[in-house]
Amino acid sequence: MAKKSIILIAAVTLIVTALGIFSNTGKKLLGSPLAQFWSWNQKTAKDNCQLKPKPREFSHQPYYTGQLIDAHIHMPVSSSIVSAVGKRIGFKNMLAFGGTLTLDYLACLFKSEGISQTIGFFMTTRFSTWQELTAVKKATKNYPGRIAPFFMPAPYSILRVKPSDVRNTLDKNKGLFKGIGEIKVFDGTSLDNPYFMEMFKIASDYNLIIMMHPFQDHRPTVEKILKQHPKVKFLLHGGKDAEWIMEVMKDYKNLYYSLDADIVSLYGWERGHARKEPTKEEWLNYIRKNFDSVLNEQLRDWKPKIEAYSDRFMWGTDRWYAWHFDYEVGGLLEEYGRTFIGKLAPSVREKFAYKNAERLLKQ
After folding, report:
1. For residue 182, is the peptide bond before it cis, meaning its omega torsion is within 30 degrees of 0?
2. pTM of structure
3. DSSP 154
4. Which of 131, 134, 263, 313 has a Cα-to-Cα distance from 290 of 20 to 30 A?
5. CA angle, 285 then 291 then 294, to 5°
6. For residue 62, cis peptide bond before it (omega within 30 degrees of 0)
7. Could you say which DSSP state residue 156 is in?
8. Considering the domain boundaries, does residue 133 fall inside one?
9. Listed residue (268, 259, 261) closest to 286, CA to CA
10. pLDDT over 80 at 41, yes or no
């Protein structure tokens, strides 16, 4: 393991240099003890969960109180180096496990929210594959059935794992991953770029789900991909660009959809948030003041769609930033989600809350 760690640090050093970010911060990171980087190796009391369900702040009825599956969670990365590099190339909130943010804390947090399982995206780079793989194995061993791991490709080509190595990883770890994703374009290419097309082929060959985030102008590309891979189940999200996706759902039965951050304005509610995301305090203040108006607007938009395709919609949160995993934030996300679900037709509530995601993961 020590040899692999040295190779990893050397490789990431090259990336840091290539990207022009060999700053004082980078030097400090690369000069620190190895144990500081790989927080998946920390010892924590995984069975000592002290978090209690957060009391409700609102009194909406009907209110859904049953099981939940969160269909969209970005897991913290396992390498502080990868996190630091990510932040310097544009991912300012790329989170890494460390300190109090451990796998055991997340499992405890989800339990306090009544979430029985999460679809977790483990972002993997060519320089941290074995670290993420170790994290995934630890998650599935310590919390069997609680986290459904997806292999998430890195956002930029310089960081991505070669398709042949993805296949080797899947061959050596049969059944470990349930899907590939989130797949989203960050580099100015398209969802049908050669690398992603290889990922779709791999998903077809290994019976994996593809989780994909298209944008408004991606309809022709999405339809092309769906047509070429009829055996693959595609899980999409992206609420603000979703009207055409509803039309595509009519023609492609292998298309599923998760509703998550957009229905609760988790990443912002005004134009300025495209440049600077809201803080924890700003979001809590906003959603508490506007709980009813946000809820009613989202129900107007989504309730008819969910009930029209009641077997293919599912709930999620799209947590990624550090403050998204805060107990107070998580409790309010849960309460909003349960309130939203409670307003759906009784025959649809459990499907949207967990049954559709459960069935998708078992197929």
Report:
1. yes
2. 0.86
3. P
4. 313
5. 115
6. yes
7. S
8. yes
9. 268
10. no
Report CA-CA distances (Å) from 231 to 112, 196, 363. 36, 16, 11
Residue found by looking up tokens 């840091």 in the block: 16
The verdict on 17 and 104 lying in the same domain is no
- Written as six digits, the tokens of 302 are 């989504």
Q: Is residue 348 part of a domain?
A: yes
Domain that holds residue 29: 1-37
Token pair belonging to 212: 């994909």
Give bridge partners of residue 152 from the DSSP assignment. 123
* Long-range contact set of residues 18-22: C-beta below 8 Å, sequence gap at least 24: 18/158, 19/85, 19/88, 19/89, 21/85, 21/88, 21/89
Site of tokens 């679809």: 119
Whether 164 and 93 map to the same domain: the answer is yes
pLDDT digits (tens, 9 = 90+) for 70-111: 999 999 988 777 777 777 766 667 788 888 899 999 999 999
Question: Token digits for 323?
Answer: 């403050």
CATH number at residue 223: 3.20.20.140
Do residues 243 and 342 share a domain?
yes
| Residue 44 belongs to a domain | no
Q: Which residue from 306, 222, 291, 215 is spatially nearest to 257, judged by alpha carbons?
A: 306
Distances in whole angstroms, Cα of residue 66 to Cα of each of 271, 319, 359:
36, 21, 17
Which helix (H) or strand (E) element contains residue 289? helix 280-308
pLDDT digits (tens, 9 = 90+) for 291-311: 999 999 999 999 999 999 999
Of residues 106, 182, 186, the one with CA closest to residue 147: 106
Domain shared by 22 and 132, yes or no: no
Q: Identify whether residues 328 and 190 lie together within a single domain.
A: yes
Give the total number of structural domains in the chain.
2
The residue count of the chain comes to 363
Residue 268, sorted as left (phi over 0), alpha (psi -120 to 50) or beta, turns out to be left
Q: Is there a single domain that holds both residue 12 and residue 127?
A: no
SS3 per-residue string spanning 21-76: CCCHHHHHHHCCCHHHCEHHHCCCCCCCCCCCCCCCCCCCCCCCCCCEEEEEEECC
